[in-house]
Amino acid sequence: MARILQPTSSNLDDIAAYLQSGEIAAIPTETVYGLAGNALDPRAVAKIFKTKGRPAQNPLIVHIESLEQLSSIADISESAKVLASLFWPGPLTMILRKKSIVSDRVTAGLQTVAVRMPSHPIFRELARRCSFPIAAPSANPFGYVSPTRTEHVQQQLGDQISFILDGGPSEKGLESTIVSLSTPSQPELLRYGSISLDSISVALGIPVIDKVNRVDSGNSGLISPGLMKKHYSPNTPIELFSGAVPEVNSNEVVLHLFWNSDFDPKQLYLSETGTMEEAAQNFYHCLQFLDQKHFNKIYLELPPKGGIGDALRDRMGRAAARG
User: Fold this and answer.
1) Kind of pairing, strands 252-258 and 297-301?
2) Which residue ranges make up each domain of the chain?
3) Residue 289: which residues within 8 A CB-CB, separation 6 or more?
């Protein structure tokens, strides 16, 4: 099984050297844990795809440490500079025109590359030790629930990788917002996250087109990660509800959004404090936990629309989608 390493200076040096050699390892970010490799090394990129079972037509997100590093892999538009100044480091991925140094394997043959600068302090300490950008899709089998803790990675990929860098529970708990700036004058939102469409529109001073549910999410020609109709899914069937709580059978379970004083001890919830941020942070962890209990069905309470609620509704909808 994989060794879980604490983020000491020595261990960070060792992981950086390990990635430099063309190997892959699981690392923390503020969104979810990523399966990391040198984005410019074909050996590492191939290992990421193989280990995850990720379709070749699904592009990777490339993670960077600095704007200088960004300039080496992508064309930086004025819109990108604005968003980077406001939201980086942080949970925002921008799709930009790529430079030739980035292989078609990383971008699934597209002339654009998805790029993010994570804010997790341990990721940043590791990235400063690397002379290359880091490809890091979620550290789980493709299509399964994303990992937000080291134990999730160990359970799903521990027999296929050698090292997991421990960064504690992920702060955000949901994948990054994705905005396409491939045509800077027509920015498009492709995936909901903790940074909202409205905040991006305000930052740019122009409307951002919401394309989350209006792009081809089939199995070919994906223009961005996170567009598969069925994704982030446990093995247990999921049914969504809002309003009245469904009646459940003996081997079914309801996962509420917020704690309620009327709950009995067996009723589960995503947030005790009643905040969407806490609900989002706990969502994947709760799905991982419940999936291991082998219920016949999990009922998920939908959050209200708007802000992080949009991101959580999106992940719930993809988790519940039929194959």
Assistant:
1) parallel
2) 3-210, 238-320
3) none
Residue 277, CA distances (Å) to 60, 167, 263 in order: 26, 19, 21
Identify the H or E element spanning 257: strand 252-258
- d(C-alpha 59, C-alpha 137), whole Å: 9
Question: 285-298 burial, b if ≥16 CB within 10 A, otherwise e?
Answer: bbbbebbeeebeeb
CATH 3.90.870.10 is held by the domain 3-210: yes
With a threshold of 0.70, does the pTM exceed it?
yes
Query: What sign does the CA torsion over 113, 119, 123, 128 have?
Result: positive
Per-residue pLDDT of the chain (323 residues; tens, 9 = 90+): 999 999 999 999 999 999 999 999 999 999 999 999 999 999 999 999 999 999 999 999 999 999 999 999 999 999 999 999 999 999 999 999 999 999 999 999 999 999 999 999 999 999 999 999 999 999 999 999 999 999 999 999 999 999 999 999 999 999 999 999 999 899 999 999 999 999 999 999 999 999 998 765 454 557 777 777 888 999 999 999 999 999 999 999 999 999 998 888 778 999 999 999 999 999 999 999 999 999 999 999 999 999 999 999 999 999 999 86
Helices 276-291 & 308-320 angle (0-180, nearest 10):
20
Q: What backbone torsions phi and psi does residue 17 show, to the nearest 5 degrees?
A: -65, -35
Reading the block at residue 122, the tokens are: 């341990």
Q: Is-contact 51 164, C-beta < 8 A? A: no
User: Residues, the chain, total?
Assistant: 323
| Whether the bond into 237 is cis, omega within 30 of 0 | no
How far apart are alpha carbons 91 and 302 in whole angstroms? 22
Whether 157 contacts 142, CB under 8 Å: no
In which element (H, E) is residue 61 found? strand 61-63
